[in-house]
Structure formats: structure tokens, C-alpha cells
Amino acid sequence: MRVWSKRFILFHWLLVSTIVLGYLSIELGFEELHFLIGYALVAPLVLRLYLFIFGNTYERLSAFAVIKDFTKYLKNKESYIGHNPLASLVMACMLMTISILFLSGLLLESFLEFQGLFVSLALEVSKETTAFIKNVHAYSFNLLLLFIALHLAGLGLSYKEDKTKHIQSIFTGRKNA
Ligand code: HEM
Ligand code: HEM
Fold first, then answer.
1. Is the terminal CB of the chain with fewer CB neighbours within 10 Å at N or C?
2. What's the pLDDT tens digit per position in 102-142?
3. Residues 34-65, buried b or exposed e (16+ Cβ, 10 A)?
4. C-alpha to C-alpha distance for 55 and 8, rounded to whole angstroms
């Protein structure tokens, strides 16, 4: 059965591409490219917001309500068609961390480089505030790496007994019910 729409699949791989390219660009010292890729992150984030409201049953914000079944899931390991409670928790953390990474990046570009969306605030912020936002950007990236590792570990663990074609679903949109 179809679980993820084509839009959801597009959102996922746009998100993955911007995160990977965002990291590579700053590591290789291409700052301007880093800002451009950073701005491109708005596409998957807006698409996800749209899907939270207009997506299918498994994509809407309400699908994250399964997080409340967390302890029940750990005991019984029931199978879920959409995200399971544990995966939902990790994914909600990823989405929140990415939003913080995005916002702190926008502020940082304005405060450090005197360009970008918040440049009008640049002269009013103290050095301490800028240093704080720099830390927020750096730490949120490190936190994201941890969540990505958990996400991939979860997928890896489910790989062997994956009767639902869970991993393939992010390419095909389909799972075995
Ligand atoms: C695609 C998602 C992003 C990733 C993965 C990412 C990652 C990083 C990393 C790893 C650093 C180095 C942090 C450190 O160790 O000090 C950094 C620095 C920075 N990023 Fe991002 N970032 C992203 C989005 C953005 C956005 C949206 C902007 C603004 C348009 C931005 C602007 C900056 C700035 C100004 C710096 C500081 C450079 C410096 O220290 O001089 N980033 N980013
Ligand atoms: C930078 C690396 C990655 C990031 C940041 C990332 C992020 C995410 C996020 C945020 C979601 C939740 C979607 C939502 O409901 O909003 C998700 C779901 C998913 N991702 Fe990733 N992902 C990454 C890499 C991968 C890779 C390499 C694969 C496997 C080939 C993968 C497979 C999946 C699958 C199968 C789901 C749906 C899980 C389910 O059925 O519950 N992801 N990913």
C-alpha cells in the first residue's frame, strides 16, 4: 500500500541533500555556498509544513501522536504502518533541531557577515549574543548528527526482519501492510 506521497519522498531527499551539502560546503570553506544551501533548506521545511496539514494520514502532524505509545511499543514491539513511536520521537527531534539550525544560521549570517535577512538587527546585538548563536548553530548541528545516527541505526536494526519494506518505502512510497 502507498504510505508516503511523492511530495513526502521529495521532502525527505531534499532535506538529506541540503544537510549533506550544507555540511560539506562549510567544511570545505565555501561560506557563500554554505549560505545559499542554507537558504535552500527552506524548501523541504516549507514542504514538510504543508504535509503536516494537507498530507495523507501518515504524513500529518497528528501521525506524531503515536509518540505517546512509546513505553507500550518498547514492551510489545507492535508493527506500525507509518512511523513507529520510537522513530517518531527521533524524527520529531530531527525536525526541531534542523529548524533551530536553520534559524540560528540565518541570524549568524546577519550578525557575523552583515548580510542577509536580519542585517537590520546586526548593529544592536552584543558580541555575547552573537557568540551564543554561534554555539547554538554548532551544537544543534552536533545534536543533529546524533539523531541522524539514531535514525540510521533504527533503520539498520529494522533491516533484517523488514517484512513491511520499511526502508524501500522512502524510495517507492509503498510498504507491505
Ligand atoms: C543546511 C543546514 C546547515 C548545516 C548542516 C550547517 C552546518 C554548519 C556547521 C557545521 C558550521 C560550523 C560550526 C562551527 O564549528 O563553528 C556552520 C557555520 C555557519 N553557518 Fe551553517 N549550517 C546550516 C545552515 C545554515 C544557514 C541556513 C545559514 C545562513 C544562511 C548558515 C550560516 C552559517 C554561518 C554564518 C556560520 C559561521 C561561520 C563562521 O564561523 O564564521 N548555516 N554551519
Ligand atoms: C542526512 C540524513 C538523513 C536525515 C536528516 C533524515 C531525516 C528524516 C526525517 C526528518 C524523517 C521523518 C519524516 C517526517 O515524518 O517528517 C525521515 C524518515 C525516513 N527516513 Fe530519513 N533521513 C536521513 C537519511 C536517511 C537514509 C540514508 C535513509 C535510507 C535509505 C532514510 C530513510 C528514511 C525512512 C525509511 C523514513 C520513514 C521512516 C518510517 O517509516 O517511519 N533516511 N528521515
1. C
2. 999 999 999 999 999 999 999 999 999 999 999 999 999 99
3. bbebbbebeebbebbeebeeebbebbeeebbe
4. 8
CA distance 147 to 165: 22
Return the closest-CA partner of residue 11 out of 53, 59, 57: 59
Minimum-distance ligand 1 atom for the alpha carbon of 21: 1
- Which ranges constitute the DSSP H helices of 28-172? 31-40, 42-54, 70-76, 85-113, 127-159, 169-172
Task: Summarize pLDDT for 7-61 with one digit per residue, the tens.
Answer: 999 999 999 999 999 999 999 999 999 999 999 999 999 999 999 999 999 999 9
Ligand nearest to the CA of 67: 2
Among protein residues, the one with the nearest Cα to ligand 2's atom 3 is 16
Regarding the beta carbon of 148 and ligand 2, being less than 6 Å apart is answered yes
